[in-house]
Task: structure prediction
Amino acid sequence: MARVFISSVIPAEPAKVWERVRDFNALPKWHPRIRDSRIEDALPSDKIGCIRNFHLQNGDMIREKLVGLSDYDLFFTYTMLEGPMPLWDYMATFRLTPITDTNRTFAEWSAEFECDPKDAGDLVNGIGSNVFQGGFDALKRHFGG
Result:
């Protein structure tokens, strides 16, 4: 099993960061690699089981299913149902934690998945830098960091 873990500090209080990222359909609003997104079957974007169908800037399509969401613990968990990468059994969690002495946010994004061992290094590096760190960098720019 391959694992990816990326963390960062966002220069804003967790409630403000959560407000920006909570909507499972809002990736195009905060992640620069996402072109468009829609929730299938017109379900609410915070309903466990809803599926987001989105396109990357390069046109690749990805479908992901929301499997966990907590406004109290500030996290969401999702699985990838379909995408261009040679992997399967993909599950990821995006989590925010308060840094209480500075009123900033510790953000972590992690994923586990199965893949051919020869692809693991490239997939872990690509997901970690392009997707996870790319999202954190965009959030830091948005919040003035």
In short: The chain has a mean pLDDT of 97. The domain at 2-142 is CATH 3.30.530.20 (Alpha-D-Glucose-1,6-Bisphosphate; Chain A, domain 4).
